[in-house]
Amino acid sequence: MASHIGGYPRMGPKRELKFALESFWDGKTTAEDLKKVSADLRSDIWKQMSAAGIKYIPSNTFAYYDQVLDTTAMLGAVPPRYGWNSGEIGFDVYFSMARGNASVPAMEMTKWFDTNYHYIVPELGPEVKFSYASHKAVNEYKEAKALGVETVPVLVGPVSYLLLSKLAKGVDKSFDLLSLLPKILPIYKEVIAELKGAGATWIQFDEPLFVMDLEGHKLQAFSGAYAELESTLSGLNVLVETYFADVPAEAYKTLTSLKGVTAFGFDLIRGTKTIDLIKSGFPKDKYLFAGVVDGRNIWANDLAASLITLQSLEGVVGKDKLVVSTSCSLLHTAVDLVNETKLDAEIKSWLAFAAQKVVEVDALAKALAGQTNQSFFSANAEALSSRRSSPRVTNQSVQKAAADLKGSDHRRATEVTARLDAQQKKLNLPILPTTTIGSFPQTVELRRVRREYKAKKISEEDYVKAIKEEIKKVVDIQEDLDIDVLVHGEPERNDMVEYFGEQLSGFAFTANGWVQSYGSRCVKPPIIYGDVSRPKPMTVFWSSTAQSMTKRPMKGMLTGPVTILNWSFVRNDQPRHETCYQIALAIKDEVEDLEKGGIGVIQIDEAALREGLPLRKAEHSFYLDWAVHSFRITNCGVQDSTQIHTHMCYSHFNDIIHSIIDMDADVITIENSRSDEKLLSVFREGVKYGAGIGPGVYDIHSPRIPSTDEIADRVNKMLAVLEQNILWVNPDCGLKTRKYTEVKPALKNMVDAAKLIRSQLASAK
Fold first, then answer.
1. For residue range 539-591, what is the model confidence (pLDDT) as tens digits?
2. Closest among 194, 204, 192, 117 to 160, alpha carbons compared
3. Can 217 be counted among the known catalytic residues?
């Protein structure tokens, strides 16, 4: 029985690629150095899968930034501002598109479906001249072949690529991106022909858009595209892979009727309803790649249950046509449990990272072929039983408190306009108040202090002293810049979710459980294994300390319950909304303690609220109801004069703007500049927003420093659709990934722009 892995984590077990990328970007190493690190990682991964018995091993899943940007490079779809005209696209153009450079901004970045992974959004229109400009897919296939490993090259499918794109600036809104199919399919044909010539026998197209609610003409585009590719694909086995949700019935019919396709892959973890579609009709003599091992969470597979599912599918498609697979790429999981030497032994037995999932896939394939590893299956059953019965999972008082939430919508008693009046009397802010989102640069020295404290190499007294000095530095910088509402810079935090999870019960932490978010940015999601509560205050000391250093308002900085949930590996033994309510109650306790500690402005970040929106529209309402309710729970008990902020970033927000309004925050700061101010269009279309709002005025994910005039121009565009008395001026997101040499001039220009427009508004009266 065959086995397949959809993709694998790229950063390496010790984040080798992250450090190689950052060293290259800083000019400390060469392109050849970077290529060698990535080649070594690829080699290790391919050999590991081969040794584990995996038959269908992926290649071309190892991106330096993301797989959509790789496809943009392959198609030569480089926006004109980057100055590329022809030839193989190199790192200079590739990373300029991803990160920007000194003279031009980066392309938009957004979330990859409902994950915390990001991709660079292609900018397309009728004038784009496509050409075969990156041979990466073929080169990586040849690289694996030279190592003696036969792989399945993976390409982002042509229709999904176009549907994931956006119209380039200036392109008429009526332009249909799918009309570009005739222009990009010839390049796909070139790639396919080269892969065939290199000896490839299988090729995988990722077409995840099949799980979305698609109109008929979009489904027809899939049919037309693969009919056009059919003759070129002749002689190859072709897998079309879907993931992250059920495939709708109409899309299933289209998918399983595609010409030239020999295999179909489905996520049977998040798409359990697809099993019924398969059982009701699957095309004869086609392969089914059954995604029964979860590629997005870290819990050990229920091998016995998965085997039953596979056996039922075997009766439909036939023994020789069923392939055991992961539900999606393992990119979204941590690398290897072997690296977790300090993790609690009981909890560790409940988990499976990418390396363990490879073993699970192989074990299930062998069991399906009658070669069951009894000791492996028995150990798995024992671990599952241990998790179900462990007393550390359930806390009755937490369960009761969450159950008692029913019957109230937890809104603050006073309308937002009255609250803003009370807050202005207390805070006395100018119009267009300036602030930042929370974090300041995480310097090498700061990281060293945290690392040494964690390793018990320095005392708590020395640690507190060092963090206080860092906070004082950040406060002084903001006062010198004349920023109105300050932050303490979060020097005590490595990560906005990890920091809170470490102080909440029901969470476990890894030492090396890193997951790529974008580019070189990695996060280490906490593991929510049990009921959540807050044993003691988490941020009050640091926020109060920072407030004592200034007379200006100091924001208390918290991560909201929905973001903690969506950026964690969440327990799968109870509904996600129940876990979210538990986290909300814990954050509520912290909010009220901050208020008692003299903090008058409290930011509760919900950066990931949009990210968690289900992919199917029928499921939106239920999710938004409990997600928005969870946010309101956190701050329903504060006084009118306490100003509640929230922050959101790097997603498409226009379709949920009414839910954002329903959160009832006093001020929302939201990413705007990198997405070409797409957010403002919703206000141009008549949506009324009465609370404070700060659409970001510059992109913090690029080293580029915007000018005062550029920022002022952005603010003026905002004033065309928003009232001046509710508008805030702030960056897109936190500043932790930037350097002080970039942050200080950018913030100076931001403050100068706000002052310039204040004076213009005053003169106009």
1. 999 999 999 999 999 999 999 999 999 999 999 999 999 999 999 999 999 99
2. 204
3. no
